[in-house]
From TrEMBL, chain A:
It comes from Martelella endophytica. CDD domains: PBP2_NikA_DppA_OppA_like_4. This is Peptide ABC transporter substrate-binding protein. It is found in: Periplasm. Residues 1-23 form the signal peptide.
From TrEMBL, chain B:
CDD domains: TM_PBP2 (cd06261). Gene3D superfamilies: MetI-like. Pfam families: BPD_transp_1 (PF00528), BPD_transp_1_N (PF19300). The keyword Protease does not apply. The keyword Membrane applies. It is found in: Cell membrane. This is ABC transporter permease. GO terms for cellular component: plasma membrane. Belongs to the binding-protein-dependent transport system permease family. One of its GO terms (biological process) is transmembrane transport.
Length: 633, 328
């Protein structure tokens, strides 16, 4: 206790407050500010009973974490290091995914999952020292969520069955969210998407009313709003809001009060974006040290993957997963000693896949893609082991598109569905489909007499060798695969406009499927136009045939989303995934790759082999607030 | 001369209007627009926006208006208010973005231009004077290599050499520890330590070509009767060579010096991307890829203006340095 080193009455006063229930410690950086009288003491900044985050080991304070970012589009890179939710996914002792409360003291769900009650931590504060109360919750609900100017359409996730959730406030810490029908997956959805727009780091149910009300039309008059918009160079006051709004986007606005472990200090478009610790962060480690351990995070801008790799091997990156590429694994390993880092791994929840377009406008290919036997042939016509060795340095595993190991929905039979390499079976299936005619080069002929050619497009340069290998295998079964590496924007545009045959892409969100099942339902995937038809209730898109299995997928989800108990919901969800896997809609190749991450040798508490998925919030799952850097003292 | 100048300047105006309009259209030609790219970016990070929301953003950004309306609005703001608009992608005024990177870009480009000339002219002259000597062959080999190796590849090789054998940190223009630090001698030294790679890369590529041009022009001139006359007058070799043939041989340089102006502004885009330089080049490339219209449009417009002005300057310089052109 360095407290005794100080003299005078201040030390006595401090001692008195520390000797109360517990003694919390704080970072030297903040202590200096307390001593200078700029900050209240740590016990006044923390909640009465702070949330305890179990650190892998108790760490030291201080240091700057250097990482890299790729430009303004990379808002989520910095965000995922620190976003907060009422409940967050964290790894339990066995490495399985578990859901734990964050800035709430407690929560409860009624029997039929229609009411969810939360109690905020007692004495929790915004990063500017103002208390966090249910007033902030009411502000979020009445003035943002229900405010047509800011939320023109309420996301279906928050209005299951078309009825928006309602809020009931009990006192200044406790509130209840109610739904018109059972909603068992609400907590999972909160952990992933939280309460959605318009904020970037999306603290569930909370907006800092004391700050944001000056930019809200329920509080400010038209002139004030017009002035605020003009000051920030936007056209309308509502443009101040949203994930890119200069007011509500944490990474553009240093004045925005936050509840995250760090807050922005130098915003983009700086060459180096910096974040600094939040003195009011509401969590401590097992020994009562206020988190985070690390003082600052610096993100350095890079343009090309090569320059980022160079930063790594020169030891300029302390810890990073994002943009660290499996295909460069050897390069990272070779230079680890020189750069003073080691290569850790996380388990990617992606499966690199061929996504055939069941809605393709090509009249010859459309019936083929919609034929399960044809998809079966495509799937068993490729030797995934070779793809894994050549394209992924052997770090992945051959598998189908299905929930990954560690997911509550994992199923070993699904994982190997149609993944064996069997060219004889593939040929047999293709003959059965009616493609037995061949041309002089031994390629199969389509019913119209033309050669069976399929264009596969990818946007990653490093996909080229993988596609070439696949093309070789398909040549053996009489299919000409034409690889195309195209620009990312074009690739996305093709998918949106139903203008592709097969796309090569990593399929994600395969850990906690309940939090985001849209991929499996066809969205942004094998049947985008069918999904549009489903989600617009028939207004636009393409209607699937009456007996199409995709309808079973949707009805299973409809069942799951209104089930009264988790068991019923999971049963329906498993049926849904089962149909998707049995139909082999998407042809998984290699997944669960051990994705490399760069960790400097003095950068501590980074667990190896954690699941990495968007649902579990990427690197956020590793709890960056308990990372620490060895201090040379 | 005055008449010639006036005509040139008057012609520049319609040229610029046409160029700005065409460039605006070209930016819009690829399928999709900024909102498509933005929505895709959101999707990759697990955010979804509906088609209705996408359309709302389009309306908000004015992307749904007819292209002519968009063009007039854009060019009007530039001419009347000096306002180049907002970059959608960076969410910041275009002029701020460009200005913040312009100083470094100009520094780098002018250094490499000067460097190019310092290398190329003497070597070109020497190679012509001592044609087929050992050194001429050495320079010729170097010249063809320099011309043949793409800049970005050379940049990668130099970076690799710097990293693997010389143990200096490469990439960027400054080590991370000096980023944001106050100006100091060690900071300046650190920048110099980084800046040599881009300069060498940019200068060798340019110099190689110029050496060949200079050599060829000199060989043409050295055989002419007036050179012999000058020698007969008893002038030294240096006086003869640098006094007359070099001046004539410089003509092609002078007529292309104007194009150095836009090059100064944009720098070598690919090299800058590879070297991770905080210059305007990478910004432009990204703007084009993302269809960040106003940022890309501003770049293309500025480049066109510079090209037109540069050509004008070249014409004036050439007229000034070579009487044959003036009185032609």
């Amino acid at each position: 206790m360095k407290l005794f080193l100080r003299s005078g009455s201040l030390a006595v006063a401090l001692l008195a407050s520390v000797s109360l229930a517990h003694a919390f410690q704080e970072a030297p950086m903040l202590k200096a500010e307390v001593d200078a009288g700029k900050l209240p003491p740590v016990d006044e900044r923390l909640p009465a009973d702070p949330m305890v985050v179990d650190a892998v080991e108790v760490g030291q304070y201080g240091g700057t974490w250097h990482r890299a970012y790729s430009g303004p589009g990379d808002r989520w890179g910095p965000t995922k290091l620190m976003e907060e939710r009422v409940l967050k996914y964290v790894p339990d002792a066995e490495g399985n995914i578990s859901l734990v409360p964050a800035y709430i003291e407690s929560y409860s769900v009624n029997d039929d999952s229609t009411e969810f009650t939360f109690t905020l931590l007692d004495g929790m504060k915004w990063s500017d020292g103002e208390p966090v109360t249910t007033e902030d919750v009411e502000f979020w609900y009445n003035d943002v969520f229900l405010n047509k100017a800011l939320t023109p359409t309420i996301d279906p996730t928050f209005s299951p069955g078309g009825v928006p959730m309602t809020l009931e406030v009990k006192d200044d810490r406790t509130f209840t969210i109610k739904f018109a029908q059972p909603y068992v997956y609400f907590l999972n959805i909160l952990a992933k998407d939280s309460t959605g727009e318009p904020s970037l780091d999306r603290p569930s149910f909370l907006y800092p009313k004391h700050y944001l009300s000056q930019f809200n039309d329920h509080y400010a008059n038209a002139d004030e709003l017009a002035k605020a918009a003009a000051d920030h160079g936007v056209q309308r006051w509502s443009d101040l809001w949203g994930s890119k709004g200069p007011i509500t986007s944490w990474w553009q606005n240093p004045e925005l009060p936050v509840i995250t472990a760090w807050k922005i200090e130098t915003p983009a478009p700086a060459n180096v974006v910096t974040m600094v610790r939040n003195p009011y962060y509401w969590a401590v480690d097992q020994d009562g040290n206020q988190l985070p351990y690390i003082d600052r995070i610096e993100h350095r801008l890079f343009d090309a993957a090569d320059s980022f790799n160079l930063m790594i091997v020169q030891g300029q990156i302390d810890m990073q997963m994002r943009y660290v590429n499996t295909s460069d694994f050897t390069f990272y390993k070779e230079n680890a000693d020189k750069g003073g880092y080691h290569v850790g791994t996380s388990i990617s929840a992606n499966v690199w896949s061929f996504v055939p377009n069941l809605n393709t406008t090509d009249e010859q290919l459309n019936p083929l893609f919609n034929n399960a036997d044809f998809r079966h042939a495509l799937s068993v016509g490729i030797d995934r082991e070779t793809i894994n060795e050549l394209g992924f340095a052997g770090l992945g595993e051959p598998r189908s598109v299905s929930p990954v190991s560690g997911s509550p929905y994992f199923n070993a039979d699904w994982e190997t569905h149609w993944t064996e390499y069997d060219p004889d079976l593939a040929n047999e299936l293709l003959d059965k489909v009616g493609l037995s005619e061949r041309d002089a080069d031994d390629y199969r002929l389509l019913p119209n007499g033309k050669r069976l050619q399929i264009v596969v497009e990818a946007y990653q340069d490093y996909a080229a060798p993988i596609l070439e290998v696949a093309a070789d295998y398909y040549k053996d079964i009489g299919i000409e695969l034409l690889p195309r590496i195209i620009d990312r924007t074009q690739w996305d545009d093709n998918r949106d406009n139903n203008n592709f045959q097969i796309q090569y892409t990593p399929v994600d969100r395969l850990s906690v499927v309940s939090a985001d099942p849209r991929n499996i339902m066809g969205n942004d995937s094998y049947a985008q136009q069918h999904y549009v038809w489903y989600s617009t209730e028939g207004e636009s898109g393409i209607e699937p045939p009456a007996d199409d299995p995709i309808r079973t997928i949707w009805s299973d989800w409809d069942k799951a989303s209104v089930a009264g108990s988790v068991e019923d919901a999971d049963a329906a969800l498993n049926d849904m995934i089962g149909t998707f896997v049995d139909q082999g809609y998407v042809i998984g190749l290699v997944g669960e790759e051990k994705a490399p991450m760069i960790v400097k040798n003095d950068f501590m508490n980074v667990r190896n082999d954690l699941i990495q998925d968007d649902v579990t919030r990427g690197v956020g799952y590793a709890q960056p607030q308990q990372f620490w850097i060895k201090q040379g003292n | 001369m005055a008449n010639f100048l006036l005509r040139r300047i008057l012609w520049a105006i319609p040229t610029l209007i046409v160029v700005s309009f065409i460039s605006f259209i070209i930016i819009q030609l690829p399928p999709g627009d900024y909102v498509t790219a933005y929505a895709a970016e959101l999707r990759n990070s697990g955010e979804y926006i509906t088609a209705a929301q996408e359309n709302a953003i389009r309306t908000q950004l004015g992307l749904n208006d007819p292209i002519l309306v968009q063009y007039v609005r854009w060019i009007g703001n530039i001419l009347l208010h000096g306002d180049f608009g907002q970059s959608f992608h960076w969410n910041a005024p275009v002029s701020d973005l460009i200005w913040s990177r312009l100083a470094l870009t100009l520094l780098l480009s002018s250094l490499s231009l000067v460097f190019t000339w310092i290398i190329a002219i003497p070597i070109g002259v020497y190679s012509a004077q001592r044609q087929y000597s050992l050194l001429d062959y050495v320079f010729t080999i170097f010249g063809f290599l320099g011309k043949g190796i793409p800049d970005f590849l050379l940049a990668l090789i130099l970076m690799w050499i710097g990293f693997a054998w010389m143990n200096i940190d490469v990439g960027g223009l400054i080590s991370p520890r000096f980023e944001g630090a106050p100006l100091s001698l060690s900071k300046v030294l650190n920048v110099l330590n980084h800046v040599w790679i881009p300069i060498v890369v940019l200068a060798t590529g340019g110099a190689a070509g110029l050496i060949r041009v200079m050599r060829a022009n000199m060989l043409d001139e050295l055989g002419k009767p007036y050179v012999e006359t000058a020698y007969a007058q008893g002038l030294s070799e240096r006086q003869v060579v640098w006094g007359y043939p070099v001046r004539v041989a410089l003509n092609p340089f002078i007529s292309t010096v104007g194009w150095a102006l836009p090059a100064l502004f944009s720098g070598d885009v690919i090299t800058a991307v590879v070297l991770n330089l905080p210059t305007t080049g990478p910004l432009m490339l990204q703007a084009l890829k993302m269809q960040d219209m106003y940022l890309a449009g501003a770049f293309i417009l500025i480049l066109s203006v510079f090209t037109v002005i540069g050509t004008l300057l070249s014409d004036i310089l050439l007229a000034w340095s070579d009487p044959r052109i003036r009185y032609a």
